[in-house]
Amino acid sequence: MIEELQDYLAKEFDIHFSDPRLLAEAFTQASYVNEHPNQNLKFYERIEFLGDAVLELIVSEYIYKRYPELPQGRLTRLRAAMVCEDSFSKFAKECHFDQYIRLGHGEELAGARQRPGLLCDIFESFVGALYLDQGRPAVEKFVQRVIFPKLDMGWFDHAVDAKTSLQEFLQRDGDVLIEYHLLEESGTENNPAFHVDVAADGQVIADGQGSSKKQAEMQAAQRALKKLRAKK
Amino acid sequence: MIEELQDYLAKEFDIHFSDPRLLAEAFTQASYVNEHPNQNLKFYERIEFLGDAVLELIVSEYIYKRYPELPQGRLTRLRAAMVCEDSFSKFAKECHFDQYIRLGHGEELAGARQRPGLLCDIFESFVGALYLDQGRPAVEKFVQRVIFPKLDMGWFDHAVDAKTSLQEFLQRDGDVLIEYHLLEESGTENNPAFHVDVAADGQVIADGQGSSKKQAEMQAAQRALKKLRAKK
């Protein structure tokens, strides 16, 4: 399984481990080690401990530099959205890491291979192994492909509030007047519905709906961001 | 104040900032910025965000490599004891950073300069500024002087359990028989007192007291570690 993983990493990411034992350790769960007591195997947890800190720093530095005006509170929220089980487990799936984890039989039967907690751990331990084997530049190259593009794809917009993101996006190169207009208020008292649009310097970009004005505005801002980013 | 800080850092740590504005930012609290609205100042929070992640990685990597047998749970506890407000605020005091913080008047009067939370923040922001100005090697040099020696001084022993630390210390170079003996049990039922000693290969190293046998053994282990480390 580890040899297949090496081939896959070479083909897909141009990553070649000098010490494949690190890679094996990163993809081995304790349950597998317990089932193979004579093979003197190690499981991923220590490397995961390191990988977690590596990812934390690389992501922190990237968003610190990319958003020079973002205050600390929002940087922290954005980092928390990027460096978390939900994101990392998705990245692990996207990288097909789930296929290469070495699990014990019981864990396999219990469906551990698709458990977000495990997938997240394996993503971190892979990064830890890559860091130990090849240093930070190799991790940066990997992360630039797997994590950072998701920022532009809007994966983490919820963490920074779409209305503020839209404002920052539009006002990058100078002042722009952003207005939200209420187009329609309908529904019942217990089930209200709002329809708004958002305009930049008088030009409507997108509309949004929701059960509160704020929700409708957030949707409009998200849609506007999506349109503007697609144009870039 | 920042010029004095530069002189101090040069003299005490041989640290010379290329961009003193980073250093100024790292030592400036928001309250000071608010009181000097025309100076276009920045406060430390964004740099602190980065410094926090830098310290997390450097400490993680150090203990990962230094304790190759320590399982993840104990690595995590040790890191939490090292990378925390309590430790960082002490390091900041030890480095006399408290003297150079730029605070607003109100904060000064409220005693913020000695507040552990602020001292911790400033320690992190200093590291963030050093990292931005001179890269990781400069931070490592600083941390090797300010943080890592505390490991040998036993600052973080509580995080890893003194009995286990003693075992690791003594068994570094091979197997050693460690025994705890109960010397005396006294006190009352509601207020018991235990006195134990700890011996390595039959030779008593230290004794300890406590209101439970475990507490007494922990104290004996701590004292033994202290003695053995002092000998090294």
TrEMBL record, chains A, B:
Active site annotated at which positions? D52, E124
Top-rank taxon? Bacteria
UniProt keyword annotation of Hydrolase present: yes
Q: Which co-factors does it depend on?
A: Mg(2+)
Choose one Gene Ontology CC annotation of this protein and give it: cytoplasm
Q: Mind telling me which SMART domains this protein's record contains? A: DSRM, RIBOc
Q: For the RNase III domain, which residue ranges apply? A: 6-135
Q: Which residues form the DRBM domain?
A: 161-230
Compartment annotation = Cytoplasm
The entry's keywords: Cytoplasm, Endonuclease, Hydrolase, Magnesium, Metal-binding, mRNA processing, Nuclease, RNA-binding, rRNA processing, rRNA-binding, tRNA processing
Q: Which reaction does it catalyse?
A: Endonucleolytic cleavage to 5'-phosphomonoester
Say what the protein does.
Digests double-stranded RNA. Involved in the processing of primary rRNA transcript to yield the immediate precursors to the large and small rRNAs (23S and 16S). Processes some mRNAs, and tRNAs when they are encoded in the rRNA operon. Processes pre-crRNA and tracrRNA of type II CRISPR loci if present in the organism. Digests double-stranded RNA. Involved in the processing of primary rRNA transcript to yield the immediate precursors to the large and small rRNAs (23S and 16S). Also processes some mRNAs, and tRNAs when they are encoded in the rRNA operon.
Q: Which NCBIfam families does the record match to this protein? A: RNaseIII
Q: Which family does it belong to?
A: Belongs to the ribonuclease III family.
Tell me how this protein assembles: Homodimer.
Protein name, per record: Ribonuclease 3
Please tell me the species this chain comes from.
Limosilactobacillus antri DSM 16041
Gene from which the chain derives: rnc
